[in-house]
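User: Okay, second chain of the day. Same drill as before: sequence in, structure tokens out.
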Amino acid sequence: MTLPATMRAMVTIGHGDLDQLVLHQNWPRPDPGPGEVLIRVGACGLNNTDVNTRTGWYSKTVSEATTGGAYETVDEHDPTWGGAPITFPRIQGADVCGKIVSVGERVDPARIGQRVITDNWLRDAHDPLDKDKTGYFGSERDGGFAEYTTIPAINALAVNSALCDAELATFSCSYSTAEGMLTRANVAKTDTVLVPGASGGVGGALVQLAKRRGARVITLASDAKHDEVARLEPARILPRTPDNLRTALGPEKISVVADVVGGPYWPQLIDILERGGRYTCSGAIAGPMVELDLRTFYLRDLTFTGSTVIDPSVMPNIVRYIEAGEIKPALAATYPLEELREAQAAFIRKTHSGNIVVTP
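Assistant: Same drill. Structure tokens below.
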């Protein structure tokens, strides 16, 4: 196969607003290095990490909710998920679905032609469990907002599915994040799980994956999105922020809160956890600064787990669930690559339910 020397790519040139995303028509196409594969991108999903990294929201100097715009207080030394500066220019985009079209040294050529999705956690080959030695696809190395991308072969997971590329591009980040949270919190069929923000990509994945484990799932979502959330068949759907969450829940006992929202409503989420309950978190889109009464924490024997770097088994399990038809994609919209700015603007408005994807 003859491959082009250049490609179309949407390149992030620095921290700031949407104008930092610049379309290039003749960006150099990467070659796979030893142990890597070259993927022709069929589709690439959007996620909060794309927005947060571009805007610098991960900086500890930012205390606002995620807005998608530039922040005046960004500290250039800590504006990424891992607390280390990102290198620009950078091609973002983590959730790639595509086909392997070339391989580097030490990779079986038989992999050429495989349809794959990406495991986005870039681990140290000699110490894969060390979280301090991990990077993220589309952050610490170029990702999938382009026609081609490279990734370590171990991170390109073969998938056998009748779903289209755009549908498969909804899984990697959202569903692995959700499964990582549920794994960290040891969710089982004896649990009742409360999911705030259930209409979002991670929220919807949490509903499906918690139900797959046999748990009872109760969701919080805005009234306008209740019909969409209902398609996931949770046990109950409540308003996004009931005035009194305990009253709204009635006799329900919540053993797990799986949260990516945070913000000013957060104390109510903690107050309704039963004794011995667990709170697991992998986001704070409504704001990272919250108030906690430590008496609630220790007197109720609660367990809090943060979840960012997932266990290595999570993404292979997600592929297995996809191939078995145990989880379904929630594709909200598809945009062409040249409209990535518009796609991110729609993503930031949060009027959609599910995941937004771009196609080169």
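The chain has a mean pLDDT of 95.

User: Thanks, on to the next one.
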